[in-house]
Here is the input.
Amino acid sequence: MSTSEFVRPAGFLGTLNGKYHNRALTVFMVIVIGHWAEHIVQAVQIYALGWKTADARGVLGMPFPWLISQEWLHYGYALVMLVFLWVLRHGFAGRSRQWWNLALGIQFWHHIEHLLLFVQAQSGWYLAGQKVPTSLIQLLVPRVELHLFYNTIVTVPMIVAMILHRRASAAEHELTGCTCGLPKQPALSAS
Here is the structure.
């Protein structure tokens, strides 16, 4: 990516993608990986433990079953994730930015699927005569498997982007203003 293709944001976005990029990415990735783990646990409950799909609610869904059935919550998470993928992308350059953008593009589609589910839940109109809110790809793939797949194909490119970002060249760090992965500067001692 040449400097003519990269615009470093100013103000809050510039600070978030520079000085605080490492912290923001860490918090965001903990949330994303935790959400992905919930989908993995749900699949384990179904396929390894033999639970019925209705009983397999992940870790948080066990004490809080309403978390599973609220389309507004799923849509809200998909939208927030999309926003943070967009906002935090300004701290990436080069190959890490390409991988981050891939995750962003996939999440955009995942967000559209959740928007469709949310609209159906609010309106009572269900796609293709189904009895429950149904996304487009869900017409072909069951919901549990589909959302585990979506979360996997969004999270894996994010992890690749993070690894590449932490190993970025000094020129890429200079371009973005981000300090992720840079060696810590020794503190000046007062003599």
User: Anything to note?
Assistant: Helices lie at 11-16, 21-47, 66-69, 71-88, 94-123, 143-166, 170-176.
